[in-house]
Design goal:
The chain contains one helix and eight strands, in the order αββββββββ. The chain is α+β, with helices and mostly antiparallel strands and 139 residues long. The protein has a single domain, classed as Macroglobulin (MG2) domain (Immunoglobulin-like). It has a five-stranded antiparallel β-sheet with strand order 1-2-3-6-5, with no helix packed on it. Strands 4-7-8 form a three-stranded antiparallel β-sheet, with no helix packed on it. Strand 1 and strand 2 (41-46) form a beta hairpin. The longest helix is centred in the N-terminal third of the chain and has 26 residues, at 2-27. It is globular and about 50 Å long. It binds copper (II) ion. Residues 82, 85, 87, 109, 111 line the site of copper (II) ion (CU).
């Protein structure tokens, strides 16, 4: 009886620790990955989680070609929209600095969002990359 109570306590403690670990892991940042047309990879990493409306959120965008090489020569044009309703223009800048394209975004409403990125490069065709954001929460 005493033993099973000890086991039960140990299980509870393990459960609490696990919950804390999960919360701790998600508090730092929100990465979203998508594919580029040439089988390269695009990742946007927001510096917070969960994403909150009406808050300045720094982000970085990393682009890699199909050989895994970092694409450094792109000019990015961003367009933040909500997939289910028209929204006023929201075009944060993202400029190349310290090995990534960096900028700051503000989501003006809670809900699902999309980050459309036009990738313009001197010696490649313009490409559109779309990052889907499932949920931005209310402030
Ligand atoms: Cu909206």
């Amino acid at each position: 009886m005493k033993n099973s109570l000890m086991t039960f306590k140990a299980q509870i403690i393990t459960l609490i620790l696990r919950c804390c670990t999960v919360i701790g892991a998600t508090a730092a940042e929100t990465p979203i990955e998508t594919e580029m047309t040439d089988a390269g990879k695009a990742v946007i990493i927001f510096a917070s989680s969960p994403l909150q409306a009406m808050t300045e959120i720094p982000f970085t965008i990393e682009l890699k070609n199909n050989a895994g090489e970092i694409i450094k020569d792109a000019e990015l044009a961003l367009d933040l929209t909500m997939p289910f309703m028209p929204m006023p223009p929201n075009n944060p800048k993202a400029v190349w600095k310290d090995n990534a394209y960096r900028g700051t975004a503000i989501f003006t409403m809670a809900g699902a969002w999309q980050v459309n990125v036009e990738v313009n490069r001197p010696e490649a065709e313009t490409e559109k990359v779309i990052f889907d954001i499932e949920m931005v929460i209310m402030k």
